[in-house]
Amino acid sequence: MSKMNNSDFINIMNERGFIHQVTDKENLEEEMKKSSIAGYIGFDCTAPSLHVGSLIQIMMLRWFQKTGNKPIVLMGGGTTKVGDPSGKDSARPLLSSERIKKNKESIKTIFKKFLKFGENGNDAIMVDNADWLENLNYISFLREYGSYFSVNKLNNLESVKLRLEREQNLSFLEFNYSILQAFDFLQLSKDYDCKIQMGGSDQWGNIITGLDLIKKVTSEQAYGLTSPLLTTSSGSKMGKTSNGAIWLNSYQLSDWDFWQYWRNTEDLDVIKFLKLFTELPISEINKLKNLKGAEINDAKIILANEVTKICRDSKVADEISSSSANLFNKSQIDDALPSVKVNISEISIIDALKKLNFLNTNGEARRLIRGNGARINDIVVNDENYTLTIKDYENGKAKISYGKKKHGLLILN
To answer: What global pTM score does this model have?
Structure first.
């Protein structure tokens, strides 16, 4: 890839489908032509990992750095204690300070795969808004900044308006979220000359509130850019499946299941996801547009490999891709499959399916078996009471399958 310029960022965002809305695009491009700029995205610490619903924002920061600009990852150690009402019908459960701290430390590890951190040039930096929000004096804060916020405008924010229209409770705690996010932007503007905040389209109102605050307090111009909120072509929310969230951290979700999620992408989403979640050149992606029928599976494998390389590891992607191909060879049991160790050879097929996290209840397992969806070493199991014995293990391993796409190994200790 040829060397990119700072201002190439907007073109790349546009070409690859990242832009939903952007403020004052012409002035932003002019400013980026003159020099690199700093920009940030905030991530609250509500879980030990981010899931693929956050991947579009992380890729925005990655492209931001690749084009010579300076990414700021803002950890929401402070705002997590308030809870973002955007897109929520009710308040988030309040987490303890200890839980937030543990979540933050866990989430931090994700970004090292995507960004180069350091203290030079456009190296990425990571900051925590708890550093300034925790120590705010309420009366002093209201005296200094309260007059800059219009309650009329805050009431018209989508996150607030929807709750009020539905007559769903919106606590004063949550009502403050947009104010605190605006203050974050002002703080980053002062400390790091941060010029742009990016985020999902549900953050548009919060971002505009921050731009207005910076303008009123410093007379400086700042910018906002949002990405579309992604759903799959069938309408389901990106990053959520019937079996739970698709986590970015490998200890929350196995590499195999992560790869399989992308391999099972709906046909109509493949090209869109290749643009958003890989770094393949647009010219290569466009060549895949015309694939039809079974050939589209080739593009899905490319998608799964490329995303796994970035999010997990190149070696992992290669091993899983090879392992997936090996599944068609019934004589082969591949060690790259997700596995659990068991101490005894005798275990029921129902317990085996549950141990591999293919399903949660005995009832689900029985329905799967009745529908011929459970297999041991590629042989369908019809007996709901079947118990594996030593004869089911080859070299101490037994392959358990849930349908055609989920496979795992029981390994004897």
So the answer is: 0.79
